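Record now logged underneath.
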Amino acid sequence: MTQPMAQDDLVVWRPEGLYCPAGDFHIDPWRPVDRAVLTHAHADHARAGHRHVLASAPSEHVLRARLGAQLPLQTLAYGEVVEHRGVRLSLHPAGHVLGSAQVRLEAGGQVWVASGDYLLSAHDEAQPTCAPFEPVRCDVFITESTFGLPVYRWAPQAETAAQIHAWWAANAVQGRPSLLLGYSFGKAQRLLAALDPAIGPIRVHEAVATMNAACRAGGMVLPEAPVLPARPDRRALAGALLLAPPALQDSAWSRRLGDPAVAFASGWMAVRGQRRRRGVDRGFVLSDHADWPGLQRAIRATGASRVIVTHGYEAELVRWLQSQGLQAASFGAVGWSEDAQDDALAVPAVAAAAHTLLPPTA
């Protein structure tokens, strides 16, 4: 079910990632290229080393925090149009994380949209940490499929928050700290925005604090959460909730916390076996990606007659789309999934000369 390349396709697959031949630029390439359009700042989409980078204006501070202050970055406001080599390009909210964008391309009478990662709530809930998903009408829609199976269906956010609060409160009664694992960019901010500080103190790992600062600089409103000291006083942690990246679950840092109750917030927690494999006390189902109904709603809202599926359960979603009468296939791209996002503590700096990504062409 790999997508055959047509001569006039606006987006094709190359080893570096998605490529627009007419515009001579890549979308979320994972190898260094001359011109890159980045949908958002997660490490499986935003890599260092590109000569020119275009991204949404709200993503600027997080991208620079992750890829270096000297990132050769040109930004666009949502809906702003730039034309390059006859291709009209604009960015539109994806609802995934701060600054996440869908890439709309128009040329030769065709409109394509590359969605990147996106979240479309099945419960019409507000997303406090980023702009909501905006359906963009198109002829061809390139969709992710991270959670492209019917088993993945998200509960209302308030229900998940209530579960977290009950777990935290029960641990506090026992005098235990609660270690809640969530990706430092995206998940951590959603959790922080939903937590009730009346239950107890909230502390964050320095990696989360760094992303919090970048998100606030990008316009996100977040409650204050002090950084947990490298060598904390265990007595002061009793009843506290500690927010940290998943990579620290069995680290020297986590062993300094004493005997915390440990939970992981992720869409993967919808499958019980994943909770066992993670070795956590609790798993809370919370994702920044669309669930199965959300994928269907988003695809229908585009009005696209042709859908290209990538990143996740590609074959399964392709079969379902074909059963609905749509022309569907996949690029067969190899990418990272949600649980492989980079939560490295060290942020690499990138030394590069300033450029504009899409300079005027003759």
